[in-house]
Design goal:
Elements lengths: L13 E11 L2 E12 L6 E4 L4 E2 L5 E6 L6 E7 L2 H6 L5 E5 L3 E4 L15 E9 L12 E5 L6 E4 L4 E4 L5 E4 L6 E7 L2 H6 L5 E2 L3 E2 L9 E9 L4 E2 L3 E6 L3 E5 L14 E8 L6 E4 L7 E3 L4 E3 L13 E9 L9 E4 L11
Parallel strand pairs: 4-10, 12-19, 20-21
Antiparallel strand pairs: 1-2, 3-5, 5-8, 6-7, 6-9, 9-10, 11-13, 13-16, 14-15, 14-17, 17-18, 17-19, 21-25, 22-26, 23-25, 24-25
Length: 340
């Protein structure tokens, strides 16, 4: 097969000739398909900033490649996805010939600048009044400004089994110059702390930590004008959790005071069956919060007949021995033996 490449202009319709040769039993057969055509897209393409990107400036210069045959462009821009999708809520900013659009400078759209921590959406509809199918509605693109507060902590918030010698790190807030770290084992102390020492690096080493201990930390960001209080994050060091499941039924588990027993059991609550503790002995083990249900795909709601896992967490609060019994039943069925 031979191929003669050439540059394709946006106004071109491309015709492809394809020949396929088959060798069977020493016989050569050739099948030719001529005049296979494809049309170039009519909608705007290649957004800048890229779709779903992080944009680290309060000024933005939107750009795109025009669709085939476009003469002008309808611009939609705002911070509400539905409004930009539907062209409502004052998101239409007119028809223009240029393939760029600026927002965030004085006397132009959003003269006070774009807002850190906010996601913006935009859409370009391509227009050619001589074409009956015009305008061609474009895709909705987005970009996000990072927040002024610290974000993306490492370890992640509520992380478990973290190494005792962990180095804490985070992504600095928008134009942050200095960072003040507060660290300890009491949520309220960390949430209310003030007067810490600022530092330049977006990392912090709290020193060797205790096993099986939950710690809390907060990072306040200073941008040379204002200080922005951060969220309180937490993590728990190694040794705090002991995990068991149905295969451990009947076995003996030893816990130290303060350790957490995590029990994971297969379940299908859509059928009405749930796991429940048969006897409550909170003088030794104290259940922590409500039972959690984890579907096979955490991003999808549970489907009827599709199982998952129920997760119990119990904290050892005092010394002693006990039998932890969990039953799988429908709570409204009195006098009926549990299924498990």
């Amino acid at each position: 097969m031979s191929w003669n490449p050439r540059t394709v202009e946006m106004s071109d319709t491309v015709y492809i000739g394809l020949a396929v040769t088959s060798h069977q039993s020493g016989e050569v057969r050739t099948f030719t398909f001529d005049n296979v055509s494809t049309e170039l897209p009519k909608i705007a393409l290649r957004p800048s900033p890229a779709d779903c990107s992080l944009h680290e400036d309060t000024l933005v210069n939107l750009g795109w490649n025009p669709g085939d045959g476009a003469v002008s462009h309808d611009v939609y821009f705002g911070d509400n996805f539905a409004n930009v999708t539907n062209g409502t809520g004052y998101t239409f900013y007119g028809n223009q010939l240029e393939t760029f659009f600026i927002a965030g400078v004085p006397e132009i759209l959003f003269p006070d600048g774009l807002v850190p921590g906010r996601t913006y959406y935009w859409r370009i509809d391509e227009v050619n009044d001589t074409e009956p199918n015009s305008p061609w509605k474009g895709d909705v693109w987005s970009f996000t400004l990072p927040p002024r507060t610290a974000y993306a902590p490492d370890p992640a918030d509520a992380a478990e089994s973290v190494d005792q010698n962990v180095d804490l790190s985070w992504t600095a807030g928008f134009v942050a110059k200095l960072h003040t770290v507060y660290f300890g084992d009491n949520f309220y102390d960390i949430n209310n702390a003030v007067g810490g020492l600022p530092q330049g690096a977006a990392t912090y080493f709290p020193g060797p930590l205790q096993l099986a201990q939950t710690y809390y930390w907060r990072v306040d960001e200073f941008d040379a004008i204002d200080t922005h209080k951060g969220d309180v994050w937490s993590f728990t060091t190694q040794g705090a959790f002991v995990h068991v499941d149905e295969y451990d039924a009947g076995s003996q588990v030893e816990l130290e005071q303060g350790q957490i027993l995590v029990v994971t059991l297969e379940s299908d609550p859509t059928t009405g069956y749930r796991w429940e503790q048969a006897e409550n002995q909170e003088s030794i083990l104290e259940q922590m919060g409500e039972t959690e249900f984890k579907p096979p795909d955490k991003d999808e709601p549970p489907l009827v007949g599709a199982g998952g896992w129920e997760i119990f967490r119990f904290k050892a609060i005092s010394a002693g021995q006990m039998t932890l019994q969990l039953v799988y039943h429908r709570t409204w069925e009195e006098g009926v033996e549990p299924l498990k």
